[in-house]
């Protein structure tokens, strides 16, 4: 048995917890998977490294509308893949070697562990680890439905699909969330024939209703979108392709594809850690229960010296949230008398598809319920990209900014953007919400560059017709 001052389970966001304050103290970092975790190896970073070349490929098609005739002569999948993973694998390997070989006080365990008591772990090979402080940053993993054929080698999740050898000619994506929207775009822009089978009647249903509805309409122009459809079975054909049987509104149908991507959500890795052995609380959706400071709970009370962060415990499966939570826990570990609190009030998110989507705060449905409960009026504006000069330049007919605010105070409650660079356009709205800037002050208290696309945000703010007096007015 080895005893440590600090043991961290998970080398994704958990890796950033080893701050200079731990120099000279004994630290264990434990990861049974690839060093660096999901975002680096199989998540945010490689997906966006595929999305960017996909945007270049798609631009050739889109250009014709504006009089620019160009063709994408081809997409070198292997070259793209190898460029991406040459970079990523080197970062993962460098990080692992730094922790394993260069830091005297840090021990790396490349094994899965489980709890045997609140401060004791056992590795898969039977080694016992105890620690004064334990941080659980063990993330989440893809969930597979129990459809027959899920074990075929042609069936992938986001964990494996980015490393395949050939661009598949025909792809079936199961699911209608973030991963389906992003890979649907990548594969179709690269030239695959994409079918997306969604159980419900719309894509991205967790987002604002207007966004979900308008994105679904756009997606149906790009992919063979099968709504209200379940995939009943997958069987391998003699030629190595997959025969899928689907049931939709028109009854049963069949489809032959070369690859199936399952994107039906991710589940926290709580079950594989045997947290029951330590008596930790688990939420109804399977997350490790924590208080606002990141302390793991047992029977509703914080367990001294046990913390959690990121996908294993967070209500948001997003890397910027995991990073924020890691910064809070890193502080709290070394300042027990001055605990910081995680801030989940204004969490933005973006879907890097086509069109791109970004959102922060309440959906319209949530804002209606919220304002009604508080007896205040809701102001709502939808501003089309096409109503601004830059939107004309783009001949844009789909992009929009939707804002929700308290009418009397102009306090922003939610912002939802669909269209070109939505993930960047949203940031001033995140800032306004975080720092309490009202809509009128934001619109008229600063210059907006003409004719930049940001004017669509300015105009959306003005369209809100809130009644507050601007705190600062340049006019
Ligand atoms: C395809 C995809 C795209 C994404 N894109 C984005 C994006 O664009 N923007 C965004 O904000 N978020 C994105 N995300 C989400 C983001 O990747 C996660 O929210 C984030 O990586 C979670 O970090 P974490 O530190 O909690 O867990 P992870 O990074 O998953 O780290 C957990 C680590 O714990 C290890 N582990 C698990 N169980 C054990 C155990 N019992 N013993 C030892 N080790 C264990 C795992 O091997 C893993 O390395 C994406 C996710 C996916 C799958
Ligand atoms: N850009 C980003 O920030 C980004 C990108 C990718 C992933 N992520 C994170 O990773 C998480 C997981 O992504 P995801 O797309 O797998 O999950 P998701 O929760 O976004 O979507 C899951 C989809 O699968 C459907 N589904 C669930 N069970 C099903 C079943 N049995 N059969 C058919 N459909 C089923 C759901 O209705 C939903 O449409 C996301 O929630 C997100 O937090 C973020």
UniProtKB/TrEMBL annotation:
Binds 1 FAD per subunit. The active site is at residue 450. Residues 4-325 form the FAD/NAD(P)-binding domain. Keywords: Disulfide bond, FAD, Flavoprotein, NAD, Nucleotide-binding, Oxidoreductase, Redox-active center. It is an enzyme of class 1 (oxidoreductase). GO terms for biological process: 2-oxoglutarate metabolic process. The keyword Amino-acid biosynthesis does not apply. Residues 347-460 form the Pyridine nucleotide-disulphide oxidoreductase dimerisation domain. GO terms for molecular function: dihydrolipoyl dehydrogenase (NADH) activity; flavin adenine dinucleotide binding; mycothione reductase [NAD(P)H] activity. Pfam families: Pyr_redox_2, Pyr_redox_dim. It comes from the Bacteria. FAD binds at residues 48, 311. The keyword ATP-binding does not apply. Its cofactor is FAD. NAD(+) binds at residues 175-182, 265. NCBIfam families: PRK07846.1. This is Mycothione reductase.
């Amino acid at each position: 048995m080895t005893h440590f001052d600090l043991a961290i389970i998970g080398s994704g966001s958990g890796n950033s917890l080893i701050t200079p304050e731990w120099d000279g103290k004994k630290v264990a970092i434990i990861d049974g998977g690839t060093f660096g975790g999901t975002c680096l190896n199989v998540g945010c970073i490689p997906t966006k490294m595929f999305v960017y070349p996909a945007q270049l490929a798609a631009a050739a098609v889109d250009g014709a509308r504006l009089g620019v005739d160009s063709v994408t002569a081809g997409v070198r999948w292997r070259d793209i893949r190898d460029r991406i993973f040459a970079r990523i694998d080197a970062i993962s390997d460098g990080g692992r070697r730094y922790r394993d070989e260069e830091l005297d006080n840090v021990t790396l365990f490349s094994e899965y562990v489980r709890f045997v008591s609140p401060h004791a772990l056992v590795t898969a090979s039977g080694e016992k680890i105890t620690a004064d402080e334990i941080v659980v940053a063990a993330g989440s993993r893809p969930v597979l439905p129990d459809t027959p054929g899920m074990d075929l080698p042609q069936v992938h999740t986001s964990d494996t699909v980015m490393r395949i050898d050939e661009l598949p000619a025909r792809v079936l994506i199961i699911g209608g969330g973030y991963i389906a929207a992003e890979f649907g775009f990548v594969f179709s822009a690269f030239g695959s024939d994409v079918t997306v089978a969604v159980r419900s009647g719309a894509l991205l249903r967790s987002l604002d209703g207007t966004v979900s509805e308008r994105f679904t309409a756009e997606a149906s122009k790009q992919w063979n979108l099968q709504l209200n459809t379940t995939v009943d079975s997958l069987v391998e054909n003699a030629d190595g392709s997959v025969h899928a049987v689907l049931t939709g509104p028109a009854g049963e149908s069949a489809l032959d594809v070369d690859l199936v991507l399952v994107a039906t959500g991710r589940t926290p890795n709580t079950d594989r850690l045997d947290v029951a052995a330590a008596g930790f609380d688990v939420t109804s959706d399977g997350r490790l229960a924590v208080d606002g400071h990141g302390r793991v709970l047992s029977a509703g009370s914080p367990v001294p010296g046990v913390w959690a962060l990121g996908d294993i415990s967070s209500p948001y499966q997003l890397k910027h949230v995991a990073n924020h939570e890691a910064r809070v826990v890193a502080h709290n570990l070394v300042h027990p008398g001055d605990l910081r609190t995680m801030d989940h009030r204004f969490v933005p998110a973006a879907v890097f598809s086509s069109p791109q989507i970004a959102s922060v705060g309440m959906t319209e449905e949530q804002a209606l319920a919220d304002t009604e409960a508080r007896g205040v009026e809701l102001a709502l504006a939808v501003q089309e990209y096409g109503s601004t000069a830059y939107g004309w330049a783009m001949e844009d007919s789909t992009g929009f900014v939707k804002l929700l605010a308290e009418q009397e105070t102009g306090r922003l409650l939610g912002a939802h953007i669909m269209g070109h660079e939505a993930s960047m356009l949203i940031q001033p709205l995140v800032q306004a919400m975080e720092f309490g800037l009202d809509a009128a002050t934001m619109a008229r208290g600063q210059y907006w560059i003409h004719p930049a696309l940001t004017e669509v945000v300015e105009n959306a703010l003005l369209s809100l017709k809130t009644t507050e007096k601007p705190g600062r007015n340049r006019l």
